[in-house]
Design goal:
By secondary structure, this protein is α/β, with parallel strands linked by helices. It has 3 domains: about 170 residues, no CATH class; about 170 residues, Glycogen Phosphorylase B (Rossmann fold, 3-Layer(aba) Sandwich), CATH 3.40.50.2000; about 100 residues, Rossmann fold (3-Layer(aba) Sandwich), CATH 3.40.50.720. It is about 35% helix and about 15% strand. It is built from 17 helices and 18 strands. It has a 6-stranded parallel sheet with strand order 9-8-7-10-11-12, with helices on both faces. A 6-stranded mixed sheet has the order 15-16-14-13-17-18. Strands 3-4-5-6 form a 4-stranded parallel sheet, with helices on both faces. It is globular.
Length: about 500
């Protein structure tokens, strides 16, 4: 946008705990407002008073300079939209908000649904995500655009040595997280390839909550074929991808995976789990990439075998002719369909449509912060009525042995409900191996596959944001003879209340 003569401004907040700040220079034509000295939004407890003034000053300055409304694109953290809502109370004529949806998870949808009245335009990164928005907001269907990611693709595909006689080079780049990204299965994929006699090297790039678990597995006799690098600056990503043959993505959920597109741009062939969102548009199976059929509840070993089999099939024999053919097709598809110029054109149309729309203001009698919906100090992880629902469910399970799935923010915020329920809680479960073996409030944290050893009869899903993804994998509990219960109806939104409340 800046190169096209737009006034572009980036507001920088403090990085997450456990994540490194990327060491790269923002181009000089982009203005930067550094708020990293302020508390992070997800820990502000809904108090946005220190964040709103610098945003308001920036909006007013840009509006004076350009003579046009300023278009703000918040991150998908609920309170980022809360800041935008607060600005529309004082400067509705100066601001237009675009809701850019990158993922099909329930939390992202709930944020956009809650702030719909101040969103001038929606942009979805895939057709299925756009269809979901249109089904929930039919009156806004004409204001919902699909904007695929764009990528800088070199004119010529970077060359690679012939596969014959060398190791196959695999790479994953992204958040090192195991619930949605399923990164621990990358180790299983490497193990399966080794058993199949495929010489290879796997590079895992990124950091996140499962980093410790992945590092420990690598140290268990795998350092000769697996390495993990910390997050690298954006301008180094494609150079790294160009050193590898195959990009591996076993995620349970994806919107339009940008890292896979960055890989394709330099001829690194994506091998991805088939999902219902943007991955289908990204590549053509067997031509410019490979889709792997594997269930949400498949364990790491099953994921490893499925991906290893797909990779072996894609190689087309020891000479690797299949990989080389798909590498050329992947590079061509990225250049022709997902160029940065096309992306910028789409983005400009969305921005201009938003800027020319009528102003929208947040109701003065409603709190602006998304966090305030939960009545606690989180980031909207617990919708209204969540504590009531949990108390009712635990009461109905009195006399039974209960395992609670989830030890994240939703569970922490409802800690008093668990402590005071009197229910027969015997353990908590979590998908993240790094949490297993620990405790929460003196209850043990176990893996879902070992929950039956506790003697539990029932499982309660303690999550709103990821409830449906966990529900889809409930078979791991049902196979052990347990009944699984969820707290929220599928249609529940952040303002939903239980009957009678």
């Amino acid at each position: 946008m800046a190169r096209r003569g737009r006034a572009a401004c980036l507001v920088v907040h403090r990085e997450d705990v456990g994540s490194d700040r990327l060491g790269f220079e923002v181009p000089g034509e982009i203005r930067v407002i550094d708020l990293s000295g302020l508390p992070p939004l997800d820990g502000a407890g809904g108090d946005l008073s220190r964040v709103i003034p610098p945003y308001r000053d920036a909006v007013r300055a840009l509006a004076r300079e350009t003579g046009r409304p300023v278009v703000m694109i918040p991150t998908l953290l609920g309170d980022s939209f809360g800041v935008a809502a607060a600005l529309t109370l004082t400067d509705p004529e100066l601001l237009r908000v675009v809701g850019w949806c990158h993922s099909p998870i329930a939390y992202d949808a709930a944020v956009l649904d809650h702030y719909e009245r101040v969103i001038a335009r929606f942009a979805a990164v895939s057709d299925p995500i756009a269809a979901g928005l249109r089904s929930r907001h039919p009156s806004r269907a004409g204001e919902i655009d699909v904007v695929y990611h764009g990528v800088e693709a070199p004119r010529e595909r970077p060359g690679r040595p012939a596969l014959a006689g060398r190791a196959l080079m695999l790479v994953y780049a992204g958040r090192v997280e195991d619930d949605l990204k399923r990164v621990v299965s990358l180790v299983a994929i490497s193990d399966s390839l080794r058993r199949a006699g495929v010489g290879h090297r796997l590079t895992i790039v990124g950091d996140g909550p499962a980093s410790g678990r992945v590092d420990a597995l690598i140290a268990e006799g795998r350092t000769d074929r697996i390495r993990r690098l910390s997050a690298v600056p954006p301008d180094r990503v494609q150079g790294l991808m160009a050193e590898h043959d195959v990009f591996v993505l076993p995620s349970r959920v994806e919107g339009m995976p940008l890292a896979a597109l960055e890989a394709m741009a330099v001829g690194c062939v994506p091998v991805m789990r088939r999902t219902e969102t943007g991955s289908r548009v990204l590549a053509e199976h067997g031509v410019s990439g490979v889709f792997v059929e594997v269930g949400d509840d498949a364990d790491d070993a099953a994921v490893g075998e499925a991906f290893a089999g797909a990779i072996v099939g894609a190689m087309g024999g020891r000479m690797g002719a299949g990989i080389d053919r798909m590498s050329e097709a992947a590079h061509r598809r990225a250049r022709e369909r997902f160029s940065m110029e096309a992306y910028a054109d789409w983005a400009e149309r969305v921005i201009d449509a938003a800027a020319s729309s009528a102003p929208r203001a947040w109701p003065a009698d409603r709190p602006c912060a998304f966090t305030s919906l939960s009545g606690s100090s989180g980031s909207g992880a617990v919708p209204s009525g969540g504590a009531w629902r949990l108390g009712e469910l635990l009461g109905a399970l009195a006399g039974r042995r209960v395992v609670v799935h989830g030890v994240g923010r939703h569970t922490i915020e409802l800690g008093s409900v668990f402590a005071g329920s009197g229910a027969g809680i015997v353990a908590f479960c979590d998908d993240d191996p790094s949490r297993q073996g620990g405790t929460i409030w003196n209850w043990p944290i176990v893996s879902p596959s070992s929950a039956g050893r506790t003697g539990a009869t029932d499982v309660v899903i303690s999550s709103w944001m990821n409830q449906e993804a966990i529900w889809d994998r409930r078979a791991v509990y049902e196979r052990q003879g347990m009944s699984v219960h969820r707290l929220y109806d599928v249609v529940d939104g952040p303002g939903a209340r239980p009957p009678g409340v």
